[in-house]
UniProtKB/TrEMBL annotation:
Keywords: Aminotransferase, DNA-binding, Pyridoxal phosphate, Transcription, Transcription regulation, Transferase. PANTHER family: HTH-TYPE TRANSCRIPTIONAL REGULATORY PROTEIN GABR (PTHR46577:SF1). SUPFAM superfamilies: PLP-dependent transferases (SSF53383), Winged helix' DNA-binding domain (SSF46785). Pfam families: Aminotran_1_2 (PF00155), GntR (PF00392). This is PLP-dependent aminotransferase family protein. It comes from Laceyella sacchari (Thermoactinomyces thalpophilus). Its cofactor is pyridoxal 5'-phosphate. It comes from the Bacteria. CDD domains: AAT_like, WHTH_GntR. Coiled coil: none annotated. Transmembrane segments: none annotated. InterPro entries: Aminotransferase_I/II_large, HTH_trans_reg/aminotransferase, PyrdxlP-dep_Trfase, PyrdxlP-dep_Trfase_major, Tscrpt_reg_HTH_GntR, WH-like_DNA-bd_sf, WH_DNA-bd_sf.
Length: 460
């Protein structure tokens, strides 16, 4: 251990506090047997005490057998008797031993990606190249690197029909972070917002941060009920039209035109979160809303679902008036996103690796989706309905059994399977039967099959 730092209390001698701290670290196993301690001078300097104070603490530890001094080498931790470790462990963890939770064998989480097919070699190669460039050794552009904004502009034009000036694109670390920043400028003109019900709870939390008043747009398995808009006071709406979060339904081209007409009529804005439009399996995606009319649409996208959640890269395309306002408000704020990640992703896209990655993953995820749906139907038949199988990295299953959401989740967990609730997404529009969320992107084909077998044992 190179150093130890902790705050002193007033009522005890400092050498005694140093002794107690090191003794506890040794007993808890935080400092291992034969690990070297800081020298007397190092420890005295880091704790801002005299060397005599440190020496007295070490001498006490030596006297009690916790450490030893070796000539010209320093101080080292002695191995403790096994029973002492057991006593300390029992005291620290007694509350954890009252109940042993079953191990999770299959986790149907939706916030992870397929690791086996991740383009690690290509990403590492490009990242290493970027690290040799001069540009990486500086602070980044406040609104995102221009090279990445240009690549994103080209990509969303090709894939989503969105014509965007790179200067109107803002790079951020996550959808929620961008919604929080966006809320700062929107609340100057708007005090309420329409959100989907059920809808992405993370977006609601971001809007709650600015105390927006909510109106809810009901969404069903057949789609959103846009007829409700004419009875609402809000002029701002947050939607996920390409793959509704969480139900997975898509907004028809007629509904998209109707929504844009509404925004123009009330002189408001649509916030379109296009969070995973890359993965559609049964038909080509409808164009994004800004491809129809960009004047009243704020367009959001990210690389978390399509590439890697940990890269923390999202982007936002703003209409010109909002773009100017945004840059004026946040012109002195540093970027929230890694410069290295931005430059690497820009080069990754420029070299064609992004296109190859998406093409490969569409096929992988399509096959996984097909397997999941087939396995669910074989296992449960009429006992459940599957929602959202046309796109995305998860499905909802509506379970036609006389059991609650909580019971279904607990029963699955008792059989080693982790599944996820959907009630968290609902404001008022609760379904008639419990629904469970099953993600599949990070699971192998065998794991998907095995997970459904375990669910069948748990629920039927």
């Amino acid at each position: 251990m190179r150093n130890i730092i902790f705050p002193f209390k007033d009522h005890l001698p400092k050498y005694k506090q140093i002794y107690d701290e090191i003794k506890l670290l040794i007993e808890q196993g935080d400092i291992k047997a034969n690990e070297q301690l800081p020298s007397i001078r190092q420890l005295a300097d880091s704790l801002d005490v005299s060397r005599n104070t440190t020496l007295m603490a070490y001498e006490q530890l030596i006297a009690e057998g916790y450490i030893r001094g070796e000539s010209r080498k320093g101080y080292f931790v002695n191995a403790l008797e096994p029973h002492l470790h057991e006593e300390v462990s029992d005291a620290l963890n007694a509350h954890q031993k009252t109940e042993i939770a079953p191990s999770v064998r299959i986790d149907f989480r939706a916030d992870a990606i397929d690791q086996q097919h991740f383009p690690l070699k290509a990403w590492r190669r490009i990242a290493n190249q970027v690290l040799t460039a001069k540009d990486v050794y500086r602070y980044g552009d406040h609104f995102g690197e221009l090279c990445l904004r240009k690549q994103i502009a080209a990509y969303i034009l090709q894939s989503r029909g969105v014509k965007a000036d790179p200067n109107a694109i803002i790079i951020g670390s996550s959808t929620q972070q961008m919604l929080v920043y966006l809320g700062h400028i929107l609340k100057d003109e708007f005090e309420r917002i329409i959100v989907e019900d059920p809808g992405f709870d993370g977006a609601r939390k971001a809007f709650q941060f600015h105390r927006f008043h909510f109106e809810t747009l009901p969404v069903y398995e057949t789609g959103a009920d846009l007829s409700k808009l004419e009875h609402m006071k809000s002029r701002l709406i947050y939607v996920t039209p390409s793959h509704q979060s969480p139900l997975g339904v898509s907004m028809s081209i007629q509904q998209r035109h109707k929504l844009i007409h509404w925004a123009n009529q009330v002189r408001g804005y649509i916030i379109e979160d296009d969070y995973d439009s890359e993965f559609r399996y049964t038909q080509k995606p409808f164009p994004a809303l800004p491809s129809i009319d960009a004047t009243r649409v704020i367009y959001l996208g990210n690389f978390s679902k399509s590439f890697l959640p940990g890269i923390r890269l999202s982007y936002m395309v703003l209409p010109q008036p909002l773009s100017d306002h945004y840059k004026e408000r946040f012109g002195l704020f540093e970027s929230t996103t890694s410069l290295l990640s931005q430059l690497t992703m820009a080069k990754f896209m420029e070299d064609g690796e992004w296109h190859r990655h998406l093409k490969r993953m569409r096929l992988v995820y399509k096959r996984k989706m097909q397997l999941l749906v087939s396995a669910l139907r074989d296992a449960f038949g009429h006992h459940l309905s599957i929602i959202g199988e046309q796109s995305g990295l998860y499905v909802f299953v509506k379970v036609h059994l006389n059991h609650s959401e909580e019971w279904l989740i607990e029963r699955a967990f008792s059989h080693g399977v982790k599944v996820y609730p959907t009630s968290r997404y609902v404001v008022h529009n609760y379904p008639d039967k419990p629904m469970i969320k099953l993600g599949f992107s990070s699971l192998s084909f065998d794991e998907i099959q095995y997970g459904i077998e375990l669910l069948k044992r748990a629920w039927l």
